[in-house]
Amino acid sequence: MANSLYLIATPIGNRDDITLRALKTLFSADILLCEDTRKTRRLLNYYQEQHYLSILINRYEIPKLVSFHEYNEERQIPQVCQWLKEGLTLGVVTNAGTPTISDPGFKLVRECVNQNIPVIPIPGPSAAISALSASGLPTDKFLFLGFLPKKMGKRQQVLEEIKQANLTCTVVIYESPFRALKTLTLIKEIYGDVEVVLARELTKLHEEITSQPISVWLKTLANKKLKGELVILFNTGGA
Length: 239
Known about the structure:
By secondary structure, the protein is α/β, with parallel strands linked by helices. The protein is about 35% helix and about 20% strand. A 5-stranded parallel β-sheet has the order 3-2-4-1-5, sandwiched between helices. Strands 6-7-10-8-9 form a 5-stranded mixed β-sheet.
């Protein structure tokens, strides 16, 4: 649909985890707003080399790619809205997963909503939902925190506020491998020796989704270097 902003979910690891609708939208957009144009171009080149594009009718070339990330999002918004008002079709693509979910795009979406510009989600991969679905923890109620604040005091405040609210739910956190040990230590201080699931390298060759008491994790990771971003999950009710 012309004059619309599409939020296009892309694979979080395995490049074959792309939907037919996402492929059609990627290659029919006039402009793609990319968190990293180089990564997006490599992804699109891969799909060009496969037989996937046989589902498309007249469009096989890669659209115009424009850099759009957390450091230039606000500056780019006026130009993006102008393109949309001119009748162009734009898509937002992050390096992996669903745009705006711990990734750029929220401020643009808010502005489009304010200006009555259609925003259309193209659903697909999400590390949070993938990890939750395979965690073995309750999925009926969950709280997604994304990346916790970098400052330890604020991180502690977020977790303590949830504890004080007496919520019983599964908490889902994104974490860097460099801060994982500190975050697990903090969770143990606030929630005790709860069962924690760590999901790493989701959909990739070395995918790991493992559950064990947090005390075991602290011993396991004390002298181990992790690679790749993690999803940390635990249930506030101890499940």
